[in-house]
Write a sequence for this structure.
C-alpha cells in the first residue's frame, strides 16, 4: 500500500462543509488518472482529514 499525505486542497473551506462531495470528486479524479495511466487494477481510497493538516490517499495494487 502506498500512503500519500495530501496537504493542500484548493476547496478546503467547502470540503469541511461538504466532505462527501468534494472528497468524492478528488477521489474520482485520482481513479480516473490511474485508469488513464493503465493502473485501473489499483484501488484508491481517500481518508478525509485523517490527521491535522492532511488527508490520506491510500493506493493498493489489486493484483497482489
Amino acid at each position: 500500500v502506498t500512503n500519500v499525505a495530501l496537504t493542500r486542497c484548493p476547496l478546503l473551506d467547502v470540503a469541511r462543509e461538504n466532505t462527501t462531495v468534494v472528497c468524492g470528486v478528488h477521489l474520482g479524479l485520482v481513479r480516473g488518472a490511474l485508469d488513464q495511466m493503465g493502473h485501473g487494477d489499483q484501488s484508491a481510497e481517500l481518508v478525509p482529514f485523517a490527521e491535522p493538516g492532511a488527508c490520506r490517499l491510500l493506493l493498493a495494487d489489486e493484483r497482489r
